[in-house]
Amino acid sequence: MDWLAGELADIRDKGLYRRLNTIESAQTPRIIKDGRELIHLSSNNYLGLTGHPEVKRAAAEALHKYGTGSGGSRLTGGNTDLYNSLEDRIARFKGTEAAIVFSTGYMANIGTIAAIMNKGDLILSDELNHASIIDGCRLSRAEIKIYPHMDVSCIENTLQSSRHRRKLIVTDGVFSMDGDIAPLPEIFEIAEKYDAMVMVDDAHATGVMGRQCRGTADYYNVKVDINMGTLSKALASIGGYVAGSNELIEYLRNRARAFIYSTALPPSAVAAAKAAIDVIEDENPARKLWQNVARYRRGLTDMGFSITSKTQIIPLITGDSKRTLDAASDLERLGVYASGIRPPTVHEGRIRTSLMATHSEKDINEALDAIYIVKEKFRL
Ligand SMILES: Cc1ncc(COP(=O)(O)O)c(C=O)c1O
């Protein structure tokens, strides 16, 4: 194992070494890190529901009734009424016939793509898709065409000359590092024309985008064949899901290895996600999120940033790895916690900021003051 030290040194030399940051509090707008209170601009708890009393109560009740673990995979004794009711709830929320829950969003993507696509098939995948989509494509052994970001004409050109058995267009709904939204109506039109399936990863859109907060298909009012999402962001829990037709879900139950060969989620996580969907429909917490996004975006634009994101994820472009890390640590010194994301995760280094519905006006104003100082210093 001597090679490990050399590899690690190489990672360090390239400025790509990853360190764990440790937060000593809940995922709230203000967190404690290294004993200091910081404004949290780096949480995917977009609606703040990890601390919602109804969500916590549901998780605690499930813990009390079912215990801490599920005891097995869904197909071998780990299934309870709780899992079935979450899947029914997701299907109702997404407006589909059925849904299936995986242990993480990552597993939902690799399990689904590898199950439905095979040798001799064609996958068209956006160059900025999440790593779990990329890994699912690789596992499937299908031919993979990576198209330039949101380049619908490239999708069409490729499909025009395709003689493949099955064709799948797969895209993030909201892109996790840029916060931009996939052009689903155009993608859908081309998919229909060339008889391709469409799969959308709504990890960052579930619970926040669209009139009923159902995700990007709801935002555009289009129908998608394969609706993938996570329970781990706005739904305040852990897990992933796919929603679609009865046949699709039945097929995934039979063929998705990440579903079949992995232990079911802890009951408390299942109950929390289900309660979060109820809160989203009953209380519409996304309304406050979008007010916060508008205030924050206005502040950034006023100080000269050019903001293309239309969502709660707003990157501040920094450039190379060193500038990214330096800017993020300056921001932290000024009282704001936001992750620096470096190449090769992204083409251009950035501080990925994201808002929560629970941020106050004061949180946002103070964060903007700190960002202004960093912007001036690094000429962002
Ligand atoms: C677009 C996208 N898809 C999938 C995932 C994976 O979801 P999870 O964290 O639930 O495994 C993420 C999460 O980070 C994501 O950003």
Automatic annotation (TrEMBL):
GO molecular function: 8-amino-7-oxononanoate synthase activity; pyridoxal phosphate binding
Any one GO BP annotation for this protein: biotin biosynthetic process
Cofactor(s), names only, from the UniProt record: pyridoxal 5'-phosphate
Catalytic activity entry: 6-carboxyhexanoyl-[ACP] + L-alanine + H(+) = (8S)-8-amino-7-oxononanoate + holo-[ACP] + CO2
CDD domains linked to this entry: KBL_like (cd06454)
Pfam families: Aminotran_1_2
N6-(pyridoxal phosphate)lysine: residues carrying this PTM: K233
This enzyme's EC code(s): 2.3.1.47
Pathway in which this enzyme or protein is active: Cofactor biosynthesis; biotin biosynthesis
KW Acyltransferase (keyword) present: yes
InterPro entries on file: Aminotrans_II_pyridoxalP_BS, Aminotransferase_I/II_large, AON_synthase_class-II, AONS_Archaea/Proteobacteria, PyrdxlP-dep_Trfase, PyrdxlP-dep_Trfase_major, PyrdxlP-dep_Trfase_small
SUPFAM superfamilies: PLP-dependent transferases (SSF53383)
Keywords assigned by UniProt, alphabetized: Acyltransferase, Biotin biosynthesis, Pyridoxal phosphate, Transferase
Domain Aminotransferase class I/classII large, chain residue ranges per copy: 37-371
Function: Catalyzes the decarboxylative condensation of pimeloyl-[acyl-carrier protein] and L-alanine to produce 8-amino-7-oxononanoate (AON), [acyl-carrier protein], and carbon dioxide.
Family: Belongs to the class-II pyridoxal-phosphate-dependent aminotransferase family. BioF subfamily.
Listed PANTHER family: CLASS II AMINOTRANSFERASE/8-AMINO-7-OXONONANOATE SYNTHASE (PTHR13693), LD36009P (PTHR13693:SF3)
Subunit text: Homodimer.
Protein name: 8-amino-7-ketopelargonate synthase
